[in-house]
Every structure is written in structure tokens, then in C-alpha cells.
Specification:
Layout (H helix, E strand, L loop, with lengths): L6 H26 L18 H9 L3 H20 L7 H25 L6 E4 L1 H15 L4 H14 L13 H11 L1 E4 L5 E4 L3 H14 L9 H25 L15 H7 L9 H19 L6 H9 L1 H22 L9 H4 L11 H25 L1
Parallel strand pairs: 1-3
Antiparallel strand pairs: 2-3
Helix pairs in contact: 1-3, 1-11, 1-12, 1-13, 1-15, 3-8, 3-11, 4-5, 4-13, 5-8, 6-8, 9-11, 12-15, 13-15
Length: 385
């Protein structure tokens, strides 16, 4: 399918590219920071973190929900275009593309994280969540638009009501529930483990929300009306977040506990659950995303080309950035005197072990280096694509 070249669609590409730049920062932190995967520290814990680390981690919360919601918008726009293409089946495309994404998550993407050819420890993360949501969308696109949008709202608002349901992981119900909502580690026999980091039902809800927002991005929609609607939606979502979080009794499984106004309180107040994405997490991130869509509608700053390139080749960028970060982390480790035996690939995915890692300033330095290295390759691939 030929991309629709319009300023309207470019705003979506710009935002997608922007959040992918943020995603790179988070993954660089995973491998290079002294609080990385190998150290198993929580960057959002007031006892283990600092404000620079906390904010570095928190802003990257925008990535996955924004990317999934934009995928939903794109599906709606594709559906509108295919109505004019007899013989083309968007359902078939979504079904096959979704299955392909799941396969790539379990192979190419998992190997990028671990460099472990035995795949002893596998993750199901955002690519899996997008893939399985696409499979579901291959059926749901046949629902009336308002019904699909309403389903997305219901899933997002109500799914935390099932948090208390925690069946045993070894039971068939528990295994199914891990994929649907709970997440967690599943044994594949022997020492092989599968970690469901992104149980997909809440992410499907976010994709349906994006699908429901699709009409705002049709060519027939006035730009001023689109911006007004997005601003109202953003304010509503953020106001709902603050209102619910203050009362501290609904929308997230982790209520704040510290004295209001204290440093631990602010850490806890904004530390909302991503695994799976809670209602409060979705309200905060999608609320900010609405305002970013308005901002990128008329974005003409120097980094416009960078965001457009990354936003137009998202999966290529995603795979490439994982391999680049992991290779740079290992090279840095060995240059500084590290030994191969000090890395447990099946546990910490090759993140730099303690003693060879970097502070937050080093993380930002490697982040900029990766952006510089990624841009020309992605720009080349955009032209080839």
C-alpha cells in the first residue's frame, strides 16, 4: 500500500518517531546504567533511585501506549482506504502481520535482547502485544466503529477490577490468564522460562482507543476541530488521572503510601503500573499523547526530519536499535577490562555488570551516540522501503 502523503499523516509519523527516540533512551539505560537489568534495581523506587533517573524512566512510559494507540489510528485509516480497493482484505493483512510480529518477537527480537542462541529465557513484550492485538483487530474491525471504541473504553477503565484474580500459574486457567492480563513467568520445561511482560488484553484496549480516535485524522476533518477535540480529550484524561490518584483507591494496583508532599510521596504518586498498563497509567500517558499530537500537527523544528525517518520505519528501527545497544554495551564492557565469564546472558541479557556500568550522564551520552549511528541507516531504509 502506498503511504498517504499529507501533513495530517506526518503528525502521526512525527509522534511515532519522537516516542521511539524516547524508547531508545530507556533501553540504553537498561544496558549501560548502574541500575540496569543486571543490577535488578527499580528506577522508580525512591529508596533506589534519584530524580534524574526517575524522570528518565518515567518519560519513557509514553512510548508503548502512544505507539499502540497510533497503530490503532493507522488501522482505522487503512480500513477507510481499503473500502476503495475491492479485493483487498485488511483482515487478512492484520492477521498475517500480527502472526509474523509474534514470530519475530520470539526469535529475532528475543535474540537481540539476550544474544543467547538457546533462548533459555524468553520475553513477550511490546511487539508480541502489538502482534496479538492485530490478530484480534482482524476480527474487531468488522464491528461498528462506535462499538469497537466503546469496547476499548470498557477494557481500559474496568480491567483493573480483575487484579485480585490470580490463579495458580501451573493451572491451565493461570497460564491463559498470564497471557490475557496477569503476566509473569511461565515454565517451558526444564530451565526454560517465558516471561509475559505484556499481557495483551489491556494493550488491545489501548489499540481500540486509537482506532476510535481514527475519524479525527480523516482528510475530511478540519484541523482546528481535530486540535480542539484532542485538547479536550487530553485535559479530560489528565484531570481523571489526578482525580483518581488523589483518592488513591481505584485505577492502579499500587496505591501511594507515604506522607503527602514528601519525596517518596511524589515518587509513588506518579509510579503507576505498566505491567499490565493500569487505568491510571493509560490516563496519564494517553493524556500527554493527545497534547503531543496537537504539538506535532505544525512541528517545523530542526529534528523534524529525524522524527519522520524513525517514525516511518518503526519495526526496522526497533530491531536495529536493540542489536546496536547490546553490541555497544558488550564492546564497552570488554574495552574496560570485562571478561566473558562475568556475563550471564540468560539472566541479565548482557547488560553491563556492576563495576563496568555508567551513571545517568553516561546513559545520555550513549543515547546520543546511538541516535547518530541509527539515523543514516534508517534514512537509507526509508528510501528503499
Amino acid at each position: 500500500m502506498q503511504p498517504v502523503k499529507s501533513h495530517r499523516i506526518e503528525s502521526i509519523d512525527l509522534l511515532r518517531g519522537f516516542v521511539m527516540v524516547l524508547m531508545l533512551l530507556d533501553h540504553v539505560r537498561d544496558y549501560f546504567h548502574f541500575g540496569n537489568i543486571s543490577a535488578n534495581l527499580n528506577p522508580l523506587d525512591p529508596d533506589e533511585s534519584s530524580w534524574p533517573v526517575y524522570l528518565t524512566r518515567w518519560i519513557t512510559h509514553l512510548c508503548a501506549p502512544t505507539f499502540v494507540a497510533l497503530a490503532g489510528i493507522s488501522i482505522f485509516l487503512q480500513l477507510e482506504k481499503t473500502r476503495q480497493k475491492p479485493g483487498y482484505s485488511l483482515s487478512t493483512f492484520l492477521l498475517t502481520r500480527g502472526i509474523w510480529f509474534i514470530f519475530l518477537e520470539l526469535t529475532v527480537v528475543n535474540f537481540a535482547w539476550s544474544f543467547d542462541p538457546s533462548f533459555q529465557f524468553s520475553f513477550l513484550q511490546v511487539i508480541w502485544a502489538i502482534g496479538i492485538s492485530m490478530v484480534c483487530m482482524s476480527f474487531l474491525i468488522h464491528l461498528p466503529w462506535k462499538l469497537a471504541f466503546g469496547l476499548g473504553i470498557l477494557i481500559t477503565v474496568l480491567h483493573n477490577m480483575t487484579d485480585a484474580f490470580e490463579p495458580e500459574a501451573i493451572d491451565p486457567t493461570g497460564i491463559l490468564w498470564a497471557f490475557l492480563h496477569q503476566g509473569g513467568k511461565l515454565s517451558l520445561g526444564g530451565e526454560r522460562l517465558l516471561y509475559v511482560a505484556y499481557p495483551f488484553v489491556p494493550w488491545l484496549g489501548i489499540m481500540l482507543l486509537g482506532f476510535g480516535a481514527g475519524p479525527l485524522f480523516l482528510a475530511s476533518t478540519n484541523a482546528l476541530n481535530r486540535a480542539k477535540t484532542l485538547k479536550i480529550a487530553g485535559l479530560t484524561l489528565l484531570a481523571s488521572f489526578f482525580g483518581l490518584r488523589v483518592f488513591n483507591n481505584f485505577g492502579d494496583p499500587n496505591p501511594w503510601k507515604s506522607e503527602p508532599g514528601s519525596r517518596p510521596f511524589w515518587f509513588e504518586f506518579f509510579d503507576v503500573d505498566k505491567y499490565p498498563p493500569s487505568l491510571l497509567y493509560s490516563l496519564a500517558t494517553l493524556g500527554i499523547g493527545c497534547f503531543l499530537l496537537v504539538y506535532f500537527e505544525n512541528f517545523q523544528k530542526p529534528f523534524r526530519r529525524v522524527f519522520l525517518v524513525f517514525g516511518r520505519v518503526p519495526f526496522f528501527y526497533y530491531v536495529l536499535h536493540l542489536y546496536l545497544i547490546h553490541i555497544l554495551a558488550l564492546l564497552t564492557f570488554f574495552i574496560r577490562g570485562g571478561k566473558w565469564t562475568e556475563i550471564n546472558f540468560t539472566i541479565n541479557f548482557g547488560g553491563i555488570p556492576p563495576g563496568y556500568d555508567f551513571g545517568i550522564a553516561g546513559v545520555y551520552g550513549f543515547w546520543l551516540l546511538c541516535l547518530i549511528l541509527l539515523f543514516p541507516v534508517c534514512a537509507w531504509f526509508e528510501k528503499v522501503k
